[in-house]
Prior knowledge:
Elements lengths: L4 E4 L6 E2 L4 H15 L3 H9 L1 H12 L5 H12 L5 H17 L3 E2 L3 H9 L4 E5 L6 H10 L8 E4 H4 L6 H10 L7 E5 L2 H10 L3 E5 L14 E3 L2 H14 L1
Parallel strand pairs: 1-4, 1-6, 4-5, 6-7, 7-8
Antiparallel strand pairs: 2-3
Amino acid sequence: xxxRAITFDFWMTLFRDTNNIPRQQIRIDALKAAAGCTEQEAxxxxxxxxxxxxxxxxxxxQTLTPLDGVRMAxxxxxxxxxxxxxxxxxxxxxxxxxxxxxxxxxxxxxxxxAAAAYGPVGLISDTGISPGRSLRVLLxxxxxxxxxxxxxxxxxxxxxxxxxxxxxxxxxxxxxxPSELMHIGDLExxxxxxxxxxxxxxxxxxxxxxxxxxxxxxxxxFMDWRHFIDALPRxxxxx
Length: 239
């Protein structure tokens, strides 16, 4: 089946996170101030969130929210706070990434621009403590929104990759069937498996995460965006 649209993952595909320590410190400081706990207690509570978010993703193919993160952190501290303060903390958790942001991977914007020359382009991204509304800010700030016709974030869709609703959401916005998508991402178990199951064309971007190289169901593998851009005319014709 012909490819009618191309979609990209966000993390480790378009953006890399080289230093999240300042971002975590914002959350630690906010939790410490609100809960009246020690620095180490707040740090332990914040650092416990990533594995809990991951476990929920694997078990339920769903993404927890910043407010879920606040409540989990408070549970770790064995305390509760008024709803208003919890929502204020959730806003801090959600927007810390806007203050200390990941950086675009070299050539990523050029790759999205090149893909847009062949048809509609979208983004399919799982989120975490940083929700889709914050990632939108980063995409706009770095020029990606000029080329992305649809954004499917897991906290907004209600499921996470490889759940088909993520790909259905993007395909609908791109006026294509899921089987008519070429999806590019770095994770075998979410990006590659998700689109492969739906009959689309999976492409592995391994420039930042190479652990699936040599053991992937992807139709194509690229280590950098320059090679992808060079190969794009052939990929679109042969799909």
